[in-house]
Amino acid sequence: MKRRIERIYQLVYQQSGITTVEIAETLNIQRSNASKDLNLLVKNGQLKKSEGRPVQYFATDRNQTILAQRLTSPSTPTKSQENISYPNQATDVFARIIGTTGSMKNAVEQAKAAILYPPKGLNCLITGPTGSGKTFFAHAMFQFAQTNQIVDQDRELIVFNCADYANNPELLMSHLFGYVKGAFTGAETDREGLIQQADGGMLFLDEIHRLPPEGQEMIFYFMDHGSYNRLGETGKTHFADVRIVGATTEDPHSALLDTFVRRIPINIQMPSFNHRPVVEQLDLVRVMVAMEANRIQRKITLTEDVIKALLGSVSYGNVGQLKSNVQLICARGFMNHMSQEVIQITINDLTEGVKSGLVQLSADRVKTSDISPYLEPEMVVTPDEMNELIRTDTYELPYNLYDIIGDKAALLKTEGLDQETINHFISTDINVHLKSFYKDHGFSFDTESRLNEFVDKQIIDLSNRIASLVSERLQTYFQQNFIYAMSLHISSFLKKINVGETRETNVNIREMANDYPQEFVVAQEIRHLVEEEFQVVIPESEDYYLTVLLVSLRDDQPNGKIGVVVAAHGNSTATSMVNVVKELLEVNHIQAVDMPLDMHPRVAYEKIREAVISVNEGSGVLIMVDMGSLATFNEEIKADTGISVKTLDMVTTPLLMEATRKSSVLGSGLEDLFQSLGEFRGYGRVEKKKVAKTQVEKIILAICASGEGTAQRLKEIIERPLKQRKLDHISVKTLAVTDMKEKIADFQEKYQIIATTGILDPKISAPYIPMERILNQETNQVLDELLLENDLSEQKDVVLTATSAKDLCLKFMEESFTFINPKKMLAPLWQLAERIIGNQKESKDYALMVNFVMHMSGTIERSILNEPLMIDQQELANFEANNNNQKMNNALNDLENQLNITIPNSERYYINQLLQNKQETIQ
Q: How far apart, in whole angstroms, are the C-alpha atoms of residue 257 and residue 214?
């Protein structure tokens, strides 16, 4: 069976000039997947694409010949055929894992390093939340070791779950290391342990944190020496060559002995499902549905709402939970459409547990916005779409559920039962089978069926409507048990009304409800809904109880005090403020971070991060800083630690005291605290009017000859880490050197320019960052220094040599252009630079040459595409009349002859401007 990318390539060959939409429709694949593969084929030179809209794709002349040979003589591959390389080669098992070049990139690189490190690889630990794929990844590592002939093909991965024997250390040790006859009661013969079985291979210890301390000591002794003793054995030592891979959901430093952790050099972190990009989340859904389609050998379609529900239904269970939900809805879809060729899954096939994912997703405006461009009205999955996956899947059912459904349906039909009754029986079977299989993973998907045992279905339906209403009104996350809790609450007070009971409003309940006016308004709406639905009169006092219920069901409901971290520049500024507050309020959930002015930004970040972890009690942490630039650490700390944080700038002792006082009250929320402190005006009685701040957009200005070539590429490089850090208040603008004198003042008036970069320094107050630093992958470090307002004038220059300068040019061309061959183009452009600019073999000369070569590579690509830079006609006429730079003209004429291209005068104008500005810079 051909892989998807091969089918796309063959279709383009057969239907030259085809578009992405046509490919997706013809092959029944998702448009985003078709686009991704087409771009890879273009990048590899196997396809070319047209300019303009819609984009059309063509096979290159060379590959047309090759594919023709393949189609006419499939059994006789030619030398040319062997040279065609497609992505995701079967030799690399990791290439088949979703996210290999995205959220899983670092994990994959670490895993490969652990396996290939000479002479015997490195032991490693896989950490991550429940269901994130730790076991799956361990199997992938083992297959990679086999593929690379590190482990023999006849070996198997030895798997041991330490939790199975956590309460019996002696039995646990006997399984791992083996035992001799008489070692304990029942040990009637000698038995080898898992260590011996894994000799020459790999041992995977799942839930390794459940190993008792003595077990950890025995394991790390084995790691150090490669030797061990069986239980009950003295005087005899055994040896084994075993790579050990552990997995845990816990923090290794708190759950394992330090001496044990130190012996595991590589810690592979698995991302949670919701921290993976939406494209990967959709791909995971597609792959899991493809596995089910392959199992039943039928096409499966899912509506857009079903996809949204699946994505929104994943919480604590991550990929494993998604897998169970996919299996559940596919089984129900199969049951409802058993006689049809295509299993069409709609919102009606979902259980309430999965369907509630729609509510969760709608409350997350950011994710909803991110996912919209990738969603289509229908996802179509065919049985043959699935590429070969890792051979072992932790969440793979050990039986074919669809055979069970089919057999049961046939049996019930012969007994004369109607379809509705059959569906009822089979639904019960589906839940029983899946619940039994997933019970060890803590996943739950049968909320409605359990709830029906206690609550009328009319109440459950109303609770679903209330969930949608609440999410829309309050724009916040709610816990997975919202429908469960709301249904029971409504059922309870309806019963009280029916029997004539009334209840007095608790004073504490009333006071707490008064602190949440938004929730109180929504609670009133809910009361009216219930009154209308059941035609009853509900006392207004119930509004207070409904308010407290809404607050308690919020997903961000705090568990303890809100931690406070104060970070300020100076040797003791933060500590002084914190000591005052601690003395007055007698609290301990507050910590200071002093930052001497010469402290490196990364060191400052680590200290703030450690302080956040230290004071966190489960309710989030408020970071109070002395300058706004430190607030940019917000998202990075949240991503690193999983702790909700908010940052407030311009910290003062009174503001800190108010923050600490309010954060000490259990039940206060981080967002509420943050908002209330924004309105804090001190402890005096004087009221001040709010003065609206005018936010000036911060920008980094990238300058090149035209404002379109090199500057645009620099813009893309800088924007990448800005987006990763979610620094939406900073953008990158481009400017042509020809417009610099005229427009620089406008930029300074309209924006706050925090830095400039590009082919020359505009000599303004903002620091200038040589583009070599940006291209040399120092962007993150430069951003850290900028955001902490460090003095960039003391930055070390990038020292360039001929080799490093050429490497920079080559890297830039490879990443920026499609139609030129960087390796072939570098030599003539370098010679051109030496001829026009001159080269005294100093670092500054190489920097000038790098800038020039980068600009010229863009010039050549534009010439090939016949898309030259545009210029005002009057300016062009002046240039043509006064162009007396003979040295430049002669060199460019020679380059034209050498490359068989034409460099138009508009391009020569910008080249001339570049050289003139460089000359002014040198002078």
A: 10
* Alpha carbon distance 641, 611 (integer Å): 11
- State the pairing for strand pair 158-161/56-59: unpaired
Which residues contact residue 331 at a Cβ distance below 8 angstroms, ignoring those fewer than 6 apart? 401, 402, 405, 430, 434
Between the alpha carbon of residue 29 and those of residues 49, 388, 653, the distances in Å are 20, 17, 60
Tell me, rounded to whole angstroms, the distance of Cα 427 from its chain centroid: 35
- How far is Cα 345 from Cα 307, in angstroms, rounded to an integer? 10
Asked if residue 405 lies in contact with residue 334, where contact means CB atoms within 8 angstroms, the answer is yes
Triad 420, 421, 425: Cα angle to 5°? 120
Question: How far apart are alpha carbons 795 and 871 in whole angstroms?
Answer: 37
- State how far the Cα of 770 lies from the Cα of 740, in Å rounded to an integer: 17
Give the up-direction half-sphere exposure of residue 857: CA atoms within 13 A in the CB hemisphere. Answer: 30
Residue type, 422: I
CB atoms within 10 A of CB 19: 18
In whole angstroms, what is the distance from residue 301 CA to residue 321 CA?
20
Question: How far apart are the C-alpha atoms of 111 and 141, rounded to whole Å?
Answer: 6
Per-position b or e across 305-328, b if 16+ CB within 10 A of its CB: bbbbbbbbbbbbbbbbbbbbbbbb
Nearest to 542 by CA among 521, 523, 517: 523
Q: Is residue 627 classed exposed, middle or buried when 0-12, 13-18 and 19+ CB atoms within 10 A define those classes?
A: middle
Q: Measure the CA–CA gap between 434 and 397, rounded to whole angstroms.
A: 9
- pTM here is 0.42
Using DSSP, state whether 515 is helix, strand or coil.
coil
What are the strands, taking DSSP E only, across 111-152?
Answer: 124-127
pLDDT winner (highest mean) among 95-104, 315-324, 409-418, 509-518: 95-104
Bridge partners of residue 591, in order along the sequence = 565
Question: Residues 21-52: pLDDT tens digits?
Answer: 888 888 888 776 787 788 778 877 788 887 66
The string of pLDDT tens digits covering residues 824-852 is 889 999 889 888 887 666 666 777 788 88
Prior bond to 129 cis, omega within 30?
Answer: no
Greatest pairwise CA separation for the chain in angstroms:
104
CA distance 471 to 113: 45
Nearest CA-CA partner of 289 in 354, 383, 371: 383
CB 187 within 8 A of CB 179: yes
Q: Which two tokens stand for residue 622?
A: 């408020």
Query: Of 718, 721, 720, 808, which is closest to residue 772 (Cα–Cα)?
Result: 808
Q: How many CA atoms lie within 13 A of 411 on its CB side?
A: 8
Q: Cα–Cα distance between 782 and 602 in angstroms, integer?
A: 11
C-beta separation of 597 from 623 below 8 A: no
Q: What are phi and psi of 593, to 5 degrees?
A: -130, 105
Tokens read off for 872: 């005002």
Alpha-carbon span 46 to 53, nearest angstrom: 21
The C-alpha angle 136, 139, 142, rounded to 5 degrees, equals 155
Calpha distance 809→817 (Å, rounded): 12
Nearest to 343 by CA among 401, 296, 391: 296
Where helices occur in 237-315 by DSSP H, the ranges are: 252-255, 258-261, 278-296, 304-312
Cβ-contact 716, 749 below 8 angstroms: no
Torsions phi, psi of 690, nearest 5?
-70, 135
Which residues lie across from 621 on neighbouring strands?
Answer: 563, 645
The per-residue DSSP string of 610-627 comes to HHHHHH--SS-EEEEESS
Which of the four pLDDT bands, split at 50, 70 and 90, describes residue 527? Answer: very high
**Tokens for 511?**
């006071």
pLDDT per residue as tens digits for the range 614-647: 888 888 899 988 765 566 677 888 888 888 898 8
- Give the Cβ contact number of residue 580 at 10 Å: 13
CB-count burial class (<10 Å; 0-12, 13-18, 19+) for 505: middle
